[in-house]
Recover the amino acids of this structure.
């Protein structure tokens, strides 16, 4: 914001959990408190974008699609307004229960024309993804957890639409995004210890747009595919991969881990992830099931 006076911040009364209070303090003339009125905020954001502002609109992930999907579709996506929607509390990563758990946001925004969808793996990817969103001619949705530490380095290796190879391995490839990348890495180390080979781990930080060629090449190098996501398995990362496999005739089965088309509950993130199969245990067990079938 120091370098671009056109950047403005809109906030739907979530300044403390999203740390927008910092912007309010240091850039008060470019900070707008919109209240608990997410749909109205999107309309205002679109209008401000038409005047030349670069608008960052902040709320919880779940309120982007459940409260304001019509406004985002007609006033942001359709006219390709320069709006970056920043959502917090992705998936079931909150104790606040079903009302605050965003299990269908990626599915909704994947189906909206002109929308980018980004999900940083760690704090080093936040700034690059914000810059990607700012530089894009399309509006963007950034699905973000709260990072409780300042980053001292920036991941400059990521490119829009291109999956990031976090770990190059063989036989099994695990596709993950956001909070599930570390889970995939942990599972791969356990599999390496038990089965004497290292699976590949792919970070899909750009859920839309995607470069299909990159995905196809990665999948072709492996004999098994697992996806793990903090989202409903319908419409998200697993569906994205299933479409690539089916549309390109890649003769390989995919197994999808995530919320299995059900609502969750209010509880700590670790408990919920374990209960709903978003865990390294689930990946290892799934791989064991795969190799049993191949015997």
């Amino acid at each position: 914001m120091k370098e671009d006076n056109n950047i403005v911040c809109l906030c739907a009364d979530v300044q403390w959990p999203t740390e927008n209070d910092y912007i309010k303090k240091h850039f008060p003339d470019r900070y707008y408190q919109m209240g608990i009125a997410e749909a109205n905020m999107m309309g205002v954001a679109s209008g401000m974008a038409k005047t030349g502002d670069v608008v960052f609109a902040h709320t919880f992930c779940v309120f982007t699609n459940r409260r304001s999907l019509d406004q985002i579709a007609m006033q942001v996506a359709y006219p390709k307004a320069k709006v970056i929607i920043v959502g917090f509390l992705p998936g079931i990563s909150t104790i606040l229960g079903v009302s605050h758990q965003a299990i269908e946001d990626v599915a909704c925004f994947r189906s909206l024309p002109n929308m980018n969808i980004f999900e940083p793996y760690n704090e080093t990817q936040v700034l690059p993804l914000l810059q990607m969103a700012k530089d894009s001619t399309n509006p963007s949705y950034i699905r973000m957890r709260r990072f409780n530490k300042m980053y001292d380095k920036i991941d400059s290796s990521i490119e829009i639409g291109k999956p990031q190879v976090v770990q190059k391995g063989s036989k099994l490839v695990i596709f993950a995004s956001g909070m599930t990348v570390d889970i995939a890495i942990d599972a791969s180390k356990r599999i390496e210890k038990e089965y004497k080979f290292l699976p590949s781990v792919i970070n899909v930080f750009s859920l839309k747009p995607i470069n299909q060629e990159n995905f196809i090449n990665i999948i072709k190098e492996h004999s098994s595919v697992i996806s793990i996501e903090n989202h409903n398995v319908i419409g998200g990362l697993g569906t994205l991969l299933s479409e690539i496999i089916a549309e390109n005739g890649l003769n390989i089965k995919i197994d999808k881990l995530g919320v299995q088309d059900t609502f969750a509950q209010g509880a700590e993130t670790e408990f919920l992830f374990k209960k709903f199969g978003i865990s390294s245990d689930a990946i290892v067990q799934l791989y064991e099931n795969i190799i049993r079938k191949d015997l």
Q: What stands out?
A: The two ends are 58 Å apart (CA to CA). Residues 12 and 97 are 19 Å apart (CA to CA). Residues 7-144 form a domain with the Rossmann fold fold (CATH 3.40.50.970). The first helix runs from residue 21 to 26.
